[in-house]
Design brief:
Elements (H helix, E strand, L loop, with lengths): L1 H25 L2 E5 L4 E9 L3 E5 L5 E5 L3 E6 L2 H12 E12 L6 E15 L4 E13 L3 E14 L5 E14 L4 E2 L1 E13 L5 E21 L2 E21 L1
Antiparallel strand pairs: 1-2, 1-5, 2-3, 3-4, 6-7, 6-14, 7-8, 8-9, 9-10, 10-12, 11-13, 12-13, 13-14
């Protein structure tokens, strides 16, 4: 019986030690650099020369020991707050470029504000939606209020990476004499991500916008007004900031 109790005690101590090791390994660390930057994740390598840390998003950073101020434990509350802060972000977007309405080539500008997931599936994927304002200059300035859903996907899981983006939705016309329609856009650009999940995106885009307006034509001194439908192609540059 005494041998059994000793064996049981040893087994319990062994599993307690194993559990402690697993919890210690799974516990996130915070690497604070002398530059003021802090990186949270799991330590992969730690010696007198370097520290290698992997973040929750799968990115791996290596820092010389000379640049590291200290390494701290990250509490469970801090980890949860960190996860929450990385899930939802505010996106501000502006664009400008060439527009080709039926009359002649002109220009178009726009801006938008969105809210969405900034790190979907821990793959740096943005999915969100919001409202904006667009202006196309033809037959006077035509204003639209686009309601847009945006999907932005980086082509590499690095801080600096090319990305593709798809926009789609419906644009409401501001004036009664003008009706809006569906709009779609494709972007190809480059994205720079910061440590705090903020990012800057710059892209080339191609867009189509449906619209209908009242067109008046004079024939033999008589005015005829009828709706004219068209698709307005656009192409240009887009700049976005995710906060």
């Amino acid at each position: 019986m005494l041998f059994f109790e000793k064996s049981l005690s040893r087994i319990v101590l062994f599993f307690c030690g194993l559990l402690f090791c697993v919890v210690s390994v799974a516990q996130n660390k915070i690497v604070k650099l002398k530059s003021g930057i802090s990186v949270s994740g799991q330590i992969q390598v730690q010696n007198d020369d370097i520290i290698v840390i992997r973040t929750a998003q799968g990115r791996v950073f290596q820092y010389p020991r000379s640049e590291v101020l200290e390494v701290q434990e990250e509490s469970v509350v801090e980890q949860k707050d960190s996860i929450r802060s990385k899930r939802v972000g505010l996106r501000i977007q502006v664009n400008s470029g060439l527009a080709l309405p039926p009359s002649s080539a002109t220009y178009g500008i726009g801006a938008g504000l969105q809210v969405g997931a900034v790190d979907l599936f821990n793959r740096h994927i943005y999915l969100g939606g919001g409202l904006g304002i667009d202006m196309v200059s033809f037959d006077g300035n035509k204003f639209f209020l686009p309601l847009t859903v945006t999907l932005s996907v980086p082509l590499m899981q690095t801080e600096h990476a090319p990305f593709v983006q798809l926009d789609g939705g419906y644009a409401f016309a501001v004036r009664n004499s003008l009706r809006g329609g569906a709009h779609f856009a494709f972007h190809l650009g480059y994205q720079y991500r910061f440590e705090n999940q903020k990012s800057i995106l710059l892209s080339l885009f191609a867009k189509i916008q449906q619209a209908t307006w009242q067109y008046t034509e004079t024939i033999e001194n008589n005015n005829y007004t009828y709706p004219m439908r068209c698709v307005i192609p656009q192409a240009g540059l887009m700049l976005a900031v995710v906060l």
